[in-house]
Amino acid sequence: MSKFDLVIQNGTVVTATDTIKCDIGIKDGKILALAECLTDAKEIVDAGGMYVLPGGIDAHVHLDEPPFYGVLLNDSFETGTRAAACGGTTTIISFAQQQKDRPLRSSINDYHAKASGNAVIDYGFHIILTDPSDRVANQEIPALVEDGYTSYKCFMTYDGYLDDGQILKTLEVAKRERAMVMIHAENEHCIRHMAKKFEDEGHTSLDNFPKMAPMCVEREGTHRAISMSELVDVPILIVHVSGREAMDQIRWGQDRGLKIYAETCPQYLFLTDDIYRKRGWEAAKYLCAPPPRDSENPDALWRGIATGMFQVISSDHNAFQFDSPSGKKANGPHPHFRKVAPGIPGIEARLALVFSEGVSRGRIDINTFVATTSTNPAKIYGLYPRKGTIAVGADADIAIWDPEMKQTISHELLHEEVDYTPYEGIEIKGWPVKVFSRGNLIVAHGDYIGEAGRGEFLRRERSNIEPPQGKPVRDN
Ligand code: MN
Ligand code: MN
Question: Which ligand number lies closest to the CA of residue 316?
Fold first, then answer.
């Protein structure tokens, strides 16, 4: 009998800290050995000339949620996770929304029913809180944290946003239960104020969308979230940071020793607000909140990734159809800027975009790529070391990357169940050519080849990461 089920030979194995030439021996879905010259296997895969990376973890994806702006997401757990896998991602954390007047657990069970037997890669759920009542705070959340739901999301904007008192209450619960709170930081009242002003003036075209929620609206929300985290003395994670002024607040908090984690997304690294001015109604394709900013911001974000200010890069995948009356055009072909479902797809291209622009073009090293797209999300959301690294005992979730392979991103290339990609035409260098989940080859030759519905629910532990270290504040 062979010692290993599978050996991956001759590759360059990369973790968040190390880059080493070695073989990987896999048995029963787990990594059993890292060593030179492993051979005793039922199957051997040659990874000569390739990078062997932990599978990506996309910690911010929306699949099969209730209608938003009257529009349903087009990706199910089946199609969304297939697309994720084809892009080199082996774990997702999706959202389960609290529905008012229902026990949280019964809301969550709806999502289990959607994911179980459909998802093809492993998954967990963050809980979106819309009503942190006493019962939720004191009874439901403590029980749910024990059961592996260790992260909660608060919105400062949209219908169903939490006011500051509700956010503080949530932060106190999170502190007591050692859960992680993610915050969408934009000021709802500023957005409503500006939206009404443009509407009253008769300006309803899509180029008003970024003007309704300019950087100061996000900067204020970010600073307020950081201040509330300081007041309660609990870590938070600011999701989808779009640019410099919000970064200034995060840097300020981190430099004061506050436990502020930050996430950004490819849309802020690759898109700018030009798209809203130049593309007329097609701008609906790119409409997301917060909106991408001016052309100086992507460079600033890359510097923030390179210097460790950002711990996480996620997709914030929202697969709304574009050219469809049940998608972005649900309110007509020429919709009001407030009536287009905000959100864009990106679950599949996330890793290749960041690898190509980041690693291939020398903006970040490959260890930072692994850290921000896999290891750090695993640590922050309680999946480490089972997920997010290549180590003895970890799940054999592995993507073999060809660093020289070129692709042009196109809707035809991708497997997302949506009629466009906002990254159409972007040329990529570096692509995941083989993907393994728990030791099973699930992607080869650009397609999903694994079994249907093989993904497993992940009961997550509490966060286990050191807070980001800013520059110490001078004491004078
Ligand atoms: Mn959001
Ligand atoms: Mn989101």
Answer: 2
